[in-house]
């Protein structure tokens, strides 16, 4: 039970008055009528003490109820957060392991050597990794702490029109690797296989993307990568986009593993322009890319 110091001290003081009134009343009865006036005066003290006792008891009850109500509120909030987190993870396919906890960027880090920038704004909001240019025009990449070789990656993506980024895999710290391009909200180029600071011998285009893309909504991606000369397969919203068998390992020094990364593309202009777009890869101020339900199955 929570009480402030002041009511407690007051309780002892008023209790003293009550006790004093009670003692003096008894004394007046013992010593006869000459003490009658004093008895009436002390009766007032006695009554005052009783009233304060009742008031303090009321305050104790109120404080207890406040504390109980706060505990209920915190309990409900914790329960709702747990339900939301469990709902996210319950939708992850069997055999996949979450590599993003939906709460913070634990297990991820921002590259300090990427040519798109090192000051992009990466944060967690509503269970998703969100990225925005900061300051305007400056981008970057965020990478998984762990490297992966053969795997299936599953996630959901949402982006604003007039933006550009990508899902990197088998990536180096500076962002050299294979890329699934993400152009705004399903704009041309989205879901194509290209390279980032890498000459890819065999790319691919997601020619059927328009049939399945949900504008203004979350879209699911599932990417499978296997082999030293990787066989790469991509599904968007559970529909096959492409399957590519690389003619060679395109990675530098014949590397066969790397990090998962999400790219925040820099702007071709470092100042906002009317309409938010002057040329390719220029973002509107405040535009964002977001990723959630990120999970992987190592093969």
Which overall shape is indicated by the principal axes computed on the Cα atoms?
elongated
Question: Termini distance?
Answer: 55 Å
Main β sheet profile: 8 strands, antiparallel
Our estimate of the beta-strand percent is: 25-35%
Radius of gyration: 34 Å
- SS element count, helices: 3
Give the CATH H-level superfamily of the largest domain.
Exo-inulinase, domain 1
Describe this structure in words.
The protein has 299 residues and is of the alpha+beta class. The chain has 2 domains: 5-90, no CATH class; 97-298, Exo-inulinase, domain 1 (Jelly Rolls). It has helices at residues 5-31, 36-90, 209-212, and strands spanning 97-98, 108-110, 121-125, 128-132, 140-148, 151-159, 164-171, 177-183, 193-196, 219-226, 231-236, 239-245, 258-264, 289-298. Strands 1, 3, 4, 6, 10, 11, 12 and 14 form an 8-stranded antiparallel sheet that branches. It has a 6-stranded antiparallel sheet with strand order 2-5-13-7-8-9, with no helix packed on it. α1 (5-31) packs antiparallel against α2 (36-90). The longest helix is centred in the first third of the chain and has 55 residues, at 36-90. The chain starts with a helix and ends with a strand.
